[in-house]
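Appendix B, Record 12. Input sequence as logged:
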Amino acid sequence: MKIIGVIPARYNSSRFPGKPLADICGKPMIWWVHERLNGLEGLSEVYVATDDLRIKDVCESYGIKTIMTSENHKTHLDRLYEVSTLVDADFYINVNGDEPLIETEAIRRILPKEVDSNSLYVSNLMTELKNPLEAVDFSKIKVATDVFGYGLYLARSPIPYPKGTYDFYYKKFVGVQCFTKSALEFCYLAPRGPLEAAEDIDEFRFIENGQKIKFVEANVTTLSVDTPKDLDKVRDIIKNRLESVVFE
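Logged structural output:
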């Protein structure tokens, strides 16, 4: 069974241009994400998928394999689909290029077990939302699942509304996913629905077109870098980790 890791990275983000190359303690953010995947047992290869030569050049200077993809992709899932047409594999593990704090052990939880590689299979990590401010942060996607762990709805606003009880923990989307080749092809060919357009959440492509997303819960320390303010927080966290290792 061949499983590859893919880190989609584009330069021209509307909210944060050049984000993959942002400096974190002397290394670009994309390097920190790659380190979380590199050497993970079970992965055959790890690639950065980009449409920008600046990202490609920086990655290659660190010995990171890159795949140049079209600059016309509207979503990271479209970019992943193109990778699946260029590199054959049974499963594709996506780790968003703005997740430099994600732990390797958390990524391990998404690796497929007893899954038919010919099926249309999608899984995604989620974690309990620990910072109450994230509940109202529209850049943090909240998740509601059924009792079997399949996604019912994803939202940028807090869901569900606690009218009947406060005995509930919000869950948020973590940018670590697993796809079969057929799932990526389905997503690429399926139409964009009204919920995806309204929430601007790519994964609705599956839910609105009748396919399931399995959510795997993990207790992870994660902070996706969506803004320069997020970047400052991540820098402080990684700096403190590095200093604690030095002093140990």
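The first strand starts at residue 3 and ends at 9.
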